[in-house]
Each structure stands twice: as C-alpha cells, then as structure tokens.
Amino acid sequence: MTLKAVLFDFNGVIINDESIHLQLIDEILIQENLQPQRSDERQASLGRSDRACLHDLLTRRGRVVTQEYLTQLLLKKAKLYALELEKLEKLPLYPGLDDLIFQARSRNLNIALVSGAIRKEIELVLERAKLTEYFPVIVAGDDITTSKPEPDGYLLAVERLNQAYPGLNLQPSECLAIEDTPAGIQAAKRAGMQVVGVANTYPFHLLQRLANWTVDYLTDLELERVQEVYSQKQSQTTADEC
After folding, report:
1. 96-154: per-residue pLDDT in tens?
2. Rounded to whole angstroms, how far apart are CA atoms 130 and 57?
3. Domain range holding 67?
4. Backbone angles phi, psi at 93, to 5 degrees
5. How far apart are CA 156 and CA 172, in angstroms?
6. Do 182 and 225 share a domain, yes or no?
7. How far is residue 187's CA from residue 190's CA, in Å, rounded to a whole number?
8. Pick from 125, 111, 160: which is nearest to 139 by CA?
9. Judging by DSSP bridges, how do beta strands 194-198 and 213-215 pair with one another?
10. Of 44, 193, 203, 229, which one has the greatest count of Cβ atoms within 10 A?
C-alpha cells in the first residue's frame, strides 16, 4: 500500500473558525425568530455540514424545511461569513499548515480538500490565504447530499482526483485524511482511508481512540514517518502474497 494523496478537512484543520460558524448559525436562527443553539446542539454540529446542521436545528424548532429554503439560508450565512473575515487583519490559519502542504508536495503526494462547508466560504479563505493552487480538488458541502460521518465526500474526492490525474488509479486505501472531529474521522475510515486526528477541536485522548495517528498540532505531523508505515504495509502485503 502506497501513500498517494493527503485529504484535508477545512474547518478545524486549515482554519480556526468554528466559533465564527457557531455564532453565525445562531444569528441565522434568531433572524428566523427561532431559539439559538443549545450547548449540546453546538457540540453535535462539530464536524457536520452546515446544511445538515441547519436542517436538524430548524426541524427541531418546528420549521418546515425545503432544500431551497436551506440554500437561501446558507447563502445568507456565506455573506455574513465573508463580512466576519473582512474584520480580521489576519486569517486564523493553523500553524504548520504551510509546512504540511510543502511536505506533501515535496513527496509528490496529491492534495484535496473535503469539507461540509459550502464552496463560497472555502474558496474565500483559500484565495485570501493564497492557497488556492495547492487544492486543485475540493469537495464541498454543496457537492453532496450527505454529511460526515457518511463517507460520500471522501469517496467523491478519490473519484475527482482520478479524473484530474488520469493514470493515478487512486484507491481510498492510498489516501491519508486529516481530521479534527470524531464525525470526520469516522467518515474517512468508512471510506477506507487511514486518518490523522489533530487535537484542534477535541481532546487528544478522545481522537486517539478513533484515528490511526493523533497529534496535538499540525506541526507535529511528519508525513515521512506516515509514508514509512504505508510502505511497510505494502511490503507485508507483497510478502503475504508470495
């Protein structure tokens, strides 16, 4: 088994903006004359797509929900998100991101992004952070009808990487996902991938039970060591076949 691709989550891995999202969802609910999120609802929303979270929140509050209605609210949230980022002198990107991207590129690993955030928000951050060129494949919340912990987003990323790079013949087992929530880790594992859990959102010990590797910070992640594990598994598989 060879490591061919690194798939990044977005919120909680690339940018530290979970608090902004929670605040904006509350604003949307209040504008809709509904109660803001309870603490347990906030916790449950981490790692899931905005569409899935809003759908559940509205349904619990007795609101009839259509996909068109949800789309309108998500577009409103995207505009509010852009306004919030404009207030920030510097984006709250996680330390070590640039180095990790460099590690992946220097090892000729393909890079993709898999998130439940809508594409407008993702592209806004990547453009401002001058990271767009490093993520030629993006699977956003707009692209799928399910949410993590379902594996659909990760499976679609593999499909799109194969479309973008004919001859790559990428398999899920050749991908490494980087996630910060249990829902995200479960999604990648259900897709057949190995996962690094980074303790940006949840405690290290909780992610350690779920992920193949766990780090406190992106700066602790050494792709060279991960590649060695993949290579060892490939050697073992070859030996078993012989």
Report:
1. 999 999 999 999 999 999 999 999 999 999 999 999 999 999 999 999 989 999 999 99
2. 34
3. 18-86
4. -75, 150
5. 10
6. yes
7. 5
8. 160
9. parallel
10. 193
Cβ–Cβ < 8 Å for 140, 119: yes
CA nearest neighbour of 114 among 14, 1, 214? 14
Helix, strand, coil share (%) of the chain residues, nearest 5: 55, 10, 35
Give the total residue count for the chain: 242
Residues 38 and 139 in one domain: no
| CA nearest neighbour of 114 among 230, 216, 206, 6 | 6
Are 52 and 9 members of one domain?
Answer: no
The answer to whether 195 touches 188, Cβ cutoff 8 Å, is yes
pTM of the model: 0.91
Place of tokens 């090892």: 107
Residues 27, 10 share a domain: no
CATH number of residue 49's parent domain: 1.10.150
Tokens standing for residue 223: 């792709």
Distance CA 131, CA 120 (A): 15
Give the amino acid at 9: D
Token pair 């990271």: residue: 131
